[in-house]
Design brief:
Blueprint: E1 2-11, H1 13-26, H2 31-34, H3 40-51, E2 57-63, E3 81-84, H4 97-103, E4 115-116, H5 121-133, E5 135-136, E6 142-162, E7 169-174, H6 186-189, E8 193-200, E9 206-211, E10 231-233, H7 236-247, H8 256-259
Length: 267
Protein backbone atom coordinates (compact mmCIF):
# COMPACT_ATOMS: atom_id res chain seq x y z
CA UNK A 1 0.00 0.00 0.00
CA UNK A 2 1.20 3.53 -0.74
CA UNK A 3 0.43 6.49 1.51
CA UNK A 4 0.61 9.79 -0.38
CA UNK A 5 1.30 12.53 2.15
CA UNK A 6 -0.42 15.81 1.24
CA UNK A 7 0.08 17.50 4.62
CA UNK A 8 2.81 17.37 7.27
CA UNK A 9 2.27 18.65 10.82
CA UNK A 10 5.26 19.44 13.05
CA UNK A 11 4.11 19.93 16.65
CA UNK A 12 6.00 21.98 17.88
CA UNK A 13 9.12 23.81 16.73
CA UNK A 14 9.26 25.39 20.19
CA UNK A 15 9.79 21.97 21.77
CA UNK A 16 12.57 21.09 19.31
CA UNK A 17 14.35 24.31 20.25
CA UNK A 18 13.88 23.61 23.97
CA UNK A 19 15.17 20.04 23.58
CA UNK A 20 18.25 21.29 21.77
CA UNK A 21 19.03 23.86 24.44
CA UNK A 22 18.47 21.36 27.27
CA UNK A 23 20.86 18.94 25.57
CA UNK A 24 23.54 21.63 25.42
CA UNK A 25 23.17 22.25 29.14
CA UNK A 26 23.30 18.52 29.84
CA UNK A 27 26.52 18.31 27.83
CA UNK A 28 27.90 21.01 30.16
CA UNK A 29 28.45 23.45 27.35
CA UNK A 30 28.48 27.11 28.27
CA UNK A 31 24.92 27.49 27.05
CA UNK A 32 24.37 30.82 28.78
CA UNK A 33 27.32 32.38 26.98
CA UNK A 34 26.06 30.98 23.69
CA UNK A 35 22.54 32.35 24.26
CA UNK A 36 23.18 35.40 22.07
CA UNK A 37 23.86 33.17 19.07
CA UNK A 38 21.28 30.51 19.87
CA UNK A 39 18.58 30.09 17.25
CA UNK A 40 20.56 29.35 14.10
CA UNK A 41 19.31 25.77 13.92
CA UNK A 42 15.64 26.81 14.12
CA UNK A 43 16.14 29.28 11.28
CA UNK A 44 18.10 26.77 9.19
CA UNK A 45 15.38 24.17 9.78
CA UNK A 46 12.75 26.50 8.34
CA UNK A 47 14.97 27.38 5.38
CA UNK A 48 15.64 23.68 4.70
CA UNK A 49 12.12 23.16 3.34
CA UNK A 50 13.16 25.39 0.45
CA UNK A 51 16.79 24.28 0.30
CA UNK A 52 15.88 20.59 0.01
CA UNK A 53 12.87 21.37 -2.19
CA UNK A 54 10.46 19.65 0.17
CA UNK A 55 7.54 22.11 0.05
CA UNK A 56 6.70 25.60 -1.12
CA UNK A 57 3.79 26.12 1.29
CA UNK A 58 4.86 26.31 4.96
CA UNK A 59 2.16 27.64 7.27
CA UNK A 60 2.89 28.74 10.84
CA UNK A 61 0.19 27.94 13.41
CA UNK A 62 0.99 29.80 16.64
CA UNK A 63 -0.79 29.97 19.97
CA UNK A 64 -0.55 30.03 23.72
CA UNK A 65 -0.35 26.87 25.79
CA UNK A 66 -3.77 25.22 25.87
CA UNK A 67 -5.18 27.35 23.06
CA UNK A 68 -5.92 24.37 20.81
CA UNK A 69 -3.06 24.36 18.31
CA UNK A 70 -3.16 20.58 17.85
CA UNK A 71 -6.96 20.53 17.51
CA UNK A 72 -6.55 21.55 13.88
CA UNK A 73 -5.36 18.04 12.91
CA UNK A 74 -8.78 16.57 13.79
CA UNK A 75 -10.21 16.67 10.26
CA UNK A 76 -7.11 16.00 8.17
CA UNK A 77 -7.89 13.26 5.69
CA UNK A 78 -6.74 9.90 7.15
CA UNK A 79 -3.83 8.38 5.27
CA UNK A 80 -2.70 11.69 3.74
CA UNK A 81 -1.14 13.40 6.78
CA UNK A 82 2.17 12.70 8.54
CA UNK A 83 2.30 13.92 12.15
CA UNK A 84 5.55 14.72 13.95
CA UNK A 85 4.47 14.65 17.60
CA UNK A 86 7.64 16.32 18.88
CA UNK A 87 5.94 17.27 22.16
CA UNK A 88 5.20 13.56 22.70
CA UNK A 89 1.81 14.47 24.10
CA UNK A 90 -1.51 12.71 24.13
CA UNK A 91 -3.78 13.84 21.31
CA UNK A 92 -6.78 15.14 23.24
CA UNK A 93 -9.11 15.83 20.32
CA UNK A 94 -11.19 12.93 19.04
CA UNK A 95 -9.67 11.61 15.82
CA UNK A 96 -11.45 9.49 13.22
CA UNK A 97 -10.92 5.78 13.84
CA UNK A 98 -8.80 5.46 10.68
CA UNK A 99 -6.56 8.38 11.65
CA UNK A 100 -6.09 7.11 15.18
CA UNK A 101 -4.99 3.74 13.84
CA UNK A 102 -2.38 5.39 11.59
CA UNK A 103 -1.01 7.71 14.31
CA UNK A 104 -1.00 5.32 17.25
CA UNK A 105 -0.23 6.24 20.84
CA UNK A 106 2.33 8.89 21.80
CA UNK A 107 3.60 6.64 24.61
CA UNK A 108 4.48 3.74 22.31
CA UNK A 109 8.17 3.23 21.69
CA UNK A 110 7.38 3.00 17.98
CA UNK A 111 4.18 4.87 17.01
CA UNK A 112 2.15 3.69 14.06
CA UNK A 113 2.85 4.38 10.38
CA UNK A 114 2.09 8.07 10.08
CA UNK A 115 3.23 9.51 13.40
CA UNK A 116 6.77 10.02 14.69
CA UNK A 117 8.02 11.21 18.08
CA UNK A 118 11.53 12.18 16.96
CA UNK A 119 12.69 15.36 18.67
CA UNK A 120 15.49 16.87 16.58
CA UNK A 121 15.62 19.06 13.47
CA UNK A 122 17.91 16.73 11.56
CA UNK A 123 15.77 13.68 12.37
CA UNK A 124 12.67 15.35 10.91
CA UNK A 125 14.50 16.54 7.80
CA UNK A 126 16.00 13.10 7.24
CA UNK A 127 12.54 11.57 7.25
CA UNK A 128 11.03 14.19 4.97
CA UNK A 129 13.85 13.82 2.45
CA UNK A 130 13.34 10.05 2.48
CA UNK A 131 9.57 10.45 2.08
CA UNK A 132 10.11 12.82 -0.83
CA UNK A 133 11.74 9.96 -2.71
CA UNK A 134 9.38 7.33 -1.30
CA UNK A 135 10.23 5.22 1.75
CA UNK A 136 9.29 1.58 2.30
CA UNK A 137 8.44 0.80 5.92
CA UNK A 138 9.01 -2.57 7.65
CA UNK A 139 5.53 -3.72 6.58
CA UNK A 140 6.35 -3.10 2.93
CA UNK A 141 4.10 -0.04 2.67
CA UNK A 142 5.36 3.06 0.83
CA UNK A 143 5.22 6.50 2.46
CA UNK A 144 5.74 9.23 -0.13
CA UNK A 145 5.31 12.99 -0.05
CA UNK A 146 2.93 14.41 -2.63
CA UNK A 147 4.50 16.50 -5.39
CA UNK A 148 3.21 19.68 -3.74
CA UNK A 149 2.62 19.09 0.00
CA UNK A 150 1.71 21.64 2.66
CA UNK A 151 3.68 21.82 5.92
CA UNK A 152 2.03 23.10 9.09
CA UNK A 153 4.65 24.25 11.57
CA UNK A 154 3.12 24.65 15.03
CA UNK A 155 4.70 26.79 17.71
CA UNK A 156 4.14 28.74 20.92
CA UNK A 157 3.69 32.47 21.37
CA UNK A 158 5.49 34.70 23.82
CA UNK A 159 5.51 38.44 24.45
CA UNK A 160 8.38 40.75 23.66
CA UNK A 161 8.65 44.43 24.43
CA UNK A 162 9.51 46.93 21.70
CA UNK A 163 10.61 50.43 22.58
CA UNK A 164 8.17 52.95 21.19
CA UNK A 165 7.73 56.70 21.24
CA UNK A 166 6.44 57.58 24.68
CA UNK A 167 5.66 54.04 25.76
CA UNK A 168 6.82 50.50 25.12
CA UNK A 169 4.81 48.19 22.87
CA UNK A 170 4.13 44.54 23.65
CA UNK A 171 4.09 42.15 20.71
CA UNK A 172 3.23 38.44 20.74
CA UNK A 173 5.63 36.56 18.49
CA UNK A 174 6.95 33.06 17.92
CA UNK A 175 8.86 31.60 20.85
CA UNK A 176 12.24 30.09 20.12
CA UNK A 177 15.36 29.99 22.25
CA UNK A 178 18.15 32.54 22.06
CA UNK A 179 18.57 36.03 20.65
CA UNK A 180 19.62 35.20 17.11
CA UNK A 181 16.01 34.86 16.00
CA UNK A 182 15.61 38.60 16.49
CA UNK A 183 18.02 38.94 13.56
CA UNK A 184 17.05 35.85 11.56
CA UNK A 185 13.37 35.52 12.40
CA UNK A 186 11.38 32.62 10.97
CA UNK A 187 8.22 34.64 11.43
CA UNK A 188 9.74 37.48 9.41
CA UNK A 189 9.95 35.26 6.32
CA UNK A 190 6.66 33.37 6.62
CA UNK A 191 3.86 34.42 4.29
CA UNK A 192 1.02 32.87 6.28
CA UNK A 193 0.95 32.95 10.08
CA UNK A 194 -2.32 31.93 11.71
CA UNK A 195 -2.88 32.63 15.41
CA UNK A 196 -5.04 30.34 17.54
CA UNK A 197 -7.60 32.37 19.51
CA UNK A 198 -9.72 30.91 22.29
CA UNK A 199 -13.28 32.23 22.43
CA UNK A 200 -16.74 31.33 23.67
CA UNK A 201 -18.75 29.37 21.11
CA UNK A 202 -22.53 29.32 20.47
CA UNK A 203 -22.99 26.58 23.09
CA UNK A 204 -21.31 28.69 25.75
CA UNK A 205 -18.23 26.47 25.79
CA UNK A 206 -14.72 27.55 24.74
CA UNK A 207 -13.72 26.91 21.13
CA UNK A 208 -10.55 27.69 19.19
CA UNK A 209 -10.45 29.64 15.95
CA UNK A 210 -7.61 30.63 13.63
CA UNK A 211 -7.10 34.36 13.20
CA UNK A 212 -5.88 35.31 9.73
CA UNK A 213 -4.67 38.88 10.31
CA UNK A 214 -3.04 40.86 13.08
CA UNK A 215 -4.97 43.29 15.26
CA UNK A 216 -1.76 45.15 15.98
CA UNK A 217 -0.45 43.14 18.93
CA UNK A 218 0.92 40.01 17.26
CA UNK A 219 2.35 38.71 13.97
CA UNK A 220 -0.72 37.09 12.38
CA UNK A 221 -0.96 37.55 8.62
CA UNK A 222 -2.03 35.80 5.45
CA UNK A 223 -1.96 36.34 1.72
CA UNK A 224 -4.48 38.81 0.32
CA UNK A 225 -7.73 37.10 -0.72
CA UNK A 226 -6.70 33.81 0.87
CA UNK A 227 -9.28 34.08 3.65
CA UNK A 228 -12.40 36.24 3.61
CA UNK A 229 -12.90 36.58 7.37
CA UNK A 230 -10.78 37.53 10.36
CA UNK A 231 -11.43 34.18 12.03
CA UNK A 232 -11.73 30.78 10.36
CA UNK A 233 -12.33 27.27 11.68
CA UNK A 234 -9.35 25.63 13.36
CA UNK A 235 -9.33 22.96 10.66
CA UNK A 236 -6.01 22.38 8.90
CA UNK A 237 -7.67 20.39 6.10
CA UNK A 238 -9.84 23.40 5.23
CA UNK A 239 -6.74 25.62 5.32
CA UNK A 240 -4.86 23.27 2.98
CA UNK A 241 -7.83 23.03 0.60
CA UNK A 242 -8.13 26.81 0.47
CA UNK A 243 -4.41 27.31 -0.26
CA UNK A 244 -4.63 24.86 -3.17
CA UNK A 245 -7.82 26.50 -4.44
CA UNK A 246 -6.50 30.08 -4.40
CA UNK A 247 -3.22 29.06 -6.06
CA UNK A 248 -4.90 26.85 -8.66
CA UNK A 249 -3.00 23.81 -7.38
CA UNK A 250 -3.58 20.35 -6.02
CA UNK A 251 -1.35 18.06 -3.93
CA UNK A 252 -0.39 16.43 -7.24
CA UNK A 253 0.54 19.70 -8.96
CA UNK A 254 4.01 19.36 -10.42
CA UNK A 255 5.79 22.49 -9.24
CA UNK A 256 8.99 22.89 -11.29
CA UNK A 257 10.64 24.62 -8.37
CA UNK A 258 10.13 21.50 -6.23
CA UNK A 259 11.11 19.03 -8.94
CA UNK A 260 14.64 20.27 -9.56
CA UNK A 261 17.30 17.87 -8.36
CA UNK A 262 18.88 18.75 -5.06
CA UNK A 263 22.39 20.06 -5.50
CA UNK A 264 25.27 17.85 -4.43
CA UNK A 265 26.08 20.23 -1.58
CA UNK A 266 22.74 19.40 0.00
CA UNK A 267 23.09 15.63 -0.14
Amino acid sequence: MEFKIDTVVIDTITRISANEYAAAIADKKNARAEWEDWGKSAYNFYRAFEEYKIAQHVILILGREGSGKTYGIKNLTPGTCYYFNVDRKKITCTLPKEQKALFGNHLEEKPKKLMSTVTKYDQILKRLIAYKEGHKDPDGDIIKLAANPIIFLLGHLHDITIAGQGENIKLATMRTFGQLTTKFAIAGEATNILIVDKMIGPSGLPISKLRTQSLGFDIARSEEDLFETLHIDNDLQKVANRIYEVNGETPDSVIPYLQNETTSSNK
